[in-house]
Structure to design on (204 residues):
């Protein structure tokens, strides 16, 4: 087995509209009914990675569910689903890494701040399971451009948003993907899993 094959993977997984938006013009994905981990990743990961732009909303959302699991969540306006409560519990025992040059404090225990893409490359070299790259769009593209993303999982909603935040708007170069699987989900959603070919990745 090669060194690359043994290295833990970074798996980016996000929920997007049919036209590839991660957020609408109001600043969040109002069409997403729940923010649970619906990609089948939990058994194979032991760390989560986020960008500094997404982190404040992420920790506010999940800290709220941890503190008041029966209270409607501030994004969805609905009580947390069983899958959301399960993910909130998983978060309490899972290290989180935040790529940010400015953030220094967190409400969630087990949070480490990374200052540079090279720190992400070093994290990838450490022993462990795979790493879930939660988002947001800018950090996913930055790490994809840096050759550090191994797999991309997208739950696509049957909705054209129009305005909003495109997932790949800031990419510096084209990226060819290999389609690994397609899974039809309820309510017209589709889970698409792509592998980033070896030539699109760098050795960390």
């Amino acid at each position: 087995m090669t060194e690359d094959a043994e290295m833990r993977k970074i798996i980016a997984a996000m929920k997007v509209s049919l036209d590839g938006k991660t957020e609408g013009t109001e600043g969040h994905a109002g069409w997403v009914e729940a923010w649970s981990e619906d990609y089948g990743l939990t058994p194979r990961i032991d760390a989560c990675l986020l960008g500094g732009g997404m982190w404040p909303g992420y920790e506010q959302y999940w800290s709220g569910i941890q503190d008041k699991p029966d209270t409607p969540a501030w994004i969805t306006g609905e009580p947390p689903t069983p899958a959301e409560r399960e993910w909130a519990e998983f978060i309490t025992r899972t290290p989180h890494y935040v790529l940010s040059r400015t953030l220094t404090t967190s409400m969630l225990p087990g949070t480490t701040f990374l200052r540079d893409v090279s720190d992400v490359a070093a994290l990838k070299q450490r022993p462990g399971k795979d790493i879930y790259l939660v988002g947001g769009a800018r950090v996913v593209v930055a790490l994809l451009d840096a050759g550090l993303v191994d797999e991309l999982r997208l739950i696509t909603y049957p909705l054209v948003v129009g305005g909003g935040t495109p997932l790949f708007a800031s990419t510096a170069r084209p990226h060819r993907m290999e389609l690994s699987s397609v899974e039809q989900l309820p309510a017209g959603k589709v889970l698409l899993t792509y592998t980033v070919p070896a030539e699109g990745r760098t050795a960390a």
